[in-house]
Design a protein that fits this description.
The chain has helices at about 5-50, 70-75, 75-90, 95-125, 130-155, 165-175, and strands at about 55, 60, 65-70. It is mainly alpha-helical. It has one domain. The protein has a three-stranded antiparallel β-sheet, with no helix packed on it. Strand 2 (about 60) and strand 3 (about 65-70) form a beta hairpin. Helix 1 packs antiparallel against helix 3 (about 75-90). The longest helix has about 45 residues, at about 5-50. About 20% of the residues are buried.
Amino acid sequence: MNKKIKSKLKDIFLRYSVLVLLSIFGIQIFYFIFKPLTIYPSYFLFDIFYYTSLFGDIIKFPGTFISLKIIGACIAGSAYLLLTILNFSVPNIKLKKRLKLLLISYFAFLIINILRIFIIGVLFIEKLSWANLAHQFFWYLGSIVFVILIWFIQVKKYKIKGIPFYSDLKFLYKLKQ
C-alpha cells in the first residue's frame, strides 16, 4: 500500500472518528455554545422593538401576558451537528479550509436562527392567526432547509468536489478491487 492510500485511509479514519465522538458526546457541546449565542441576540433584537426583560431562557414582554421560552429545539443543536457531519464527511478538504467552512456555516445558521426566532416571536406578539402554523413549519422543516441551503451555497462558493459519505465509500470500494 503506497503512502497516498495510507494518507487517505488515515484521513477517513480521523474524520469519521471525530464524527462518531461528536454524535455521541458532542450534541451537548453545541447546545452549551449556541444557547447563549442564540438567546442574548434574540433578546436584544426583541428589545429594540418591544420593551422586554430576560429571565434565563424566557423573554418576557411586560404589560402583556406574552413570554417566549427559548427551548433546546429553538437552539437547534442538531442542525449544527448536521452541518458538522456534512463538512467532515467530504474528503480532500484541507484542515484550515474545513474549519473556515465550519465557522462560516455555524455563523450563517446562527444568524438565520436568531432571525427565525425573532420573526416567529413577532407573529405571536402581534397575535397573527397564522403564527402557530409558521412556528410548526419552521420547527419541522425550516432548520433542515436552512442547513441544506447553507451547505449547497458553500459547495458552490468554495468549489467542494466531494459528496458527503459517497466519495469516501467510492474510494474504499475501489481499494477493495
